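Suppose you are handed a protein chain with no further information: no name, no annotation, nothing but its sequence. What can you learn? This example shows the usual starting point.
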Amino acid sequence: MNSRGRIRQYVIKKSAFIFPTILGITFLIFLLMNYSASTSTQSENIFYKNISGITNILKEYFEWIKNVFTLDFGKSLRDGRPVWDKIIERLPATLELNVSALLMTIIIGIPLGVWQAYRINSKVDKSLTIITFIFYSIPAFWLGLILVILLGVILPDITKEWFGISLGLPTSERRSLNFILYPNRYSFFQVYWDRFLHILIPAFTFSVVNIATIARYVRANMILVLKEDYIVTARSKGLSEKKVLFKHALKNSIISTVTFISFLIPSIIGSSFIIEVVFSWPGIGRLGYNSILARDYPVVMAIGLIIAIITLFSNLCADILYYYLDPRIRVKK
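A reasonable first move is to predict its three-dimensional structure. Written in structure tokens, the prediction is:
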């Protein structure tokens, strides 16, 4: 069997576990939401009707899951709108924030870890170690509130007093009000510059803990790889330190980093609930938070299912990339 056929077979085997996992997750979500809805409204609960309650639960579950496969999550209890329409409206904002945070994590975290491994036990390494530990221990929502105060309130006041012009960064929403009300007045560059400024603080707040995490992880991996025999051989051949570091060491340590990044994706998605509320970001995290407070269970169930599916598929993509990047796995298979 050729390489492409082996990869296809590996993907099919891994994908086979996704469907039963999704069924199990959806059943748990359905049970929890049914229980919460029944106890919160003090209505008659199917769990306590009689011995045939299990049958009723299964019937309602299969009816719900059948509708889910047609993207029919029901209607919101708050405004009567279809749940899927509300999610589709908010999904682009959440994807924009999550992807930006993930890119920021990779672009800053990996080079930071490589630099620390290269300058191991130096003053730079020790200073960055202290900084990354501080960032790792800071709660994201607390950092977000501090940045809102510093960059959205204090900085504009200081710059206005010193320079006569108010300079600061936007700390709420996805766009400025003028860009929403009068979109035709602004150029393409102005529109996207405004979007960039709005996403800067939320994305940084989102990624700061993950930057510290991945920097420590890459540093540890790079230190181990730099002690391998083939690295010593590469140096003995007269290769420059830059080639040894990036062509050999980073290339081999990045394999496990890919898997680690896939585990960061669910945490980024889960953190969006709090971060979107702090920055009034109009995404599904904020929608989910408000729906929980309002006991809008159809919306909560839909968002929980979407997050579970994204998590499963991110893990699947990590497995596929790991299989593709590491020849040892293909040899074992």
